[in-house]
């Protein structure tokens, strides 16, 4: 059971997972901007896969936090 209720904005209902996705996307962009100048992407085999895995891990942590 999630702590967040279904939000209705202008007649559109948004499930709680939508806001978890938005929060994880915002955290991903911040973390990506922090990691990019450090040069960590030079050690990563495939940056797109690394970014996908990073987003999935952030989403999992946020969804565990809110449930």
UniProtKB/TrEMBL annotation:
Belongs to the AaeX family. The chain crosses the membrane at residues 6-31, 43-62. It is a multi-pass membrane protein. It comes from Yersinia aldovae. Keywords: Cell membrane, Membrane, Transmembrane, Transmembrane helix. One of its GO terms (cellular component) is plasma membrane. NCBIfam families: PRK11594.1. It comes from the Bacteria. This is Protein AaeX. InterPro entries: DUF1656 (IPR012451). The keyword NAD does not apply. It is found in: Cell membrane.
């Amino acid at each position: 059971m999630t702590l967040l209720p279904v939000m209705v904005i202008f007649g559109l209902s948004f499930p709680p997972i939508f806001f978890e996705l938005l929060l994880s996307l915002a955290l991903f962009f911040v973390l990506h901007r922090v990691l990019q100048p450090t040069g960590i992407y030079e050690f990563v085999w495939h940056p797109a896969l690394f970014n996908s895995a990073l987003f999935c891990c952030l989403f999992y942590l946020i969804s565990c936090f809110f449930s």
